[in-house]
Specification:
single chain; about 120 residues; alpha+beta; 3 helices; 8 strands; about 35% strand; globular
C-alpha cells in the first residue's frame, strides 16, 4: 500500500536538507510503532520511497510530500486496516530529527492524494 503525506512546517528549521536527508529523517519515525488495536509493538512499519521537495522553500510553511510504502502483509499479519493506520502514521511523523543537530523539529502531516 502506498500512502502520500504532505508535511508542513519544516521551514526554516529543516532548510537545506536534501531528499535523502528528509528520507533519513522520516524513516526512523516508522519504526517501533504501537498497534492501535492491541498496543503491541510493530518493529518495521514502512519505508519512504520518495520525497518531493518541489514546493519546499517556495512557501513559508516548508511543504514537502513523502511517499510511504507499507507492506500489505503487515496489515494482514496485524489485522489492521488503512483507516486504523493513518492516524498512527500521521502522529509518528509529527516530529522530524535534523540529521546534523539531532534536534526534533515539530511538523504537521496530512494525507494527500497520490499523483
Amino acid at each position: 500500500m502506498k500512502i502520500s503525506i504532505d508535511i508542513f512546517g519544516a521551514y526554516p528549521v529543516l532548510q537545506g536538507l536534501t531528499e535523502q536527508q528528509f528520507i533519513n529523517a522520516i524513516e526512523p519515525r516508522l519504526i517501533d510503532i504501537r498497534n492501535p488495536m492491541t498496543g503491541l509493538q510493530i518493529d518495521l512499519f514502512g519505508r519512504v520511497n520518495a520525497v518531493d521537495l518541489s514546493q519546499f522553500g517556495k512557501d513559508t510553511e516548508g511543504t514537502l510530500k513523502a511517499e510511504i510504502e507499507i507492506d500489505d502483509s503487515l496489515l494482514q499479519r496485524h489485522q489492521l486496516t488503512p483507516a486504523q493506520l493513518h492516524p498512527v502514521l500521521l502522529a509518528r511523523i509529527s516530529k522530524l530529527r535534523h540529521p546534523a543537530t539531532g534536534v526534533m523539529s515539530p511538523v504537521s502531516a496530512h494525507l494527500s492524494n497520490l499523483s
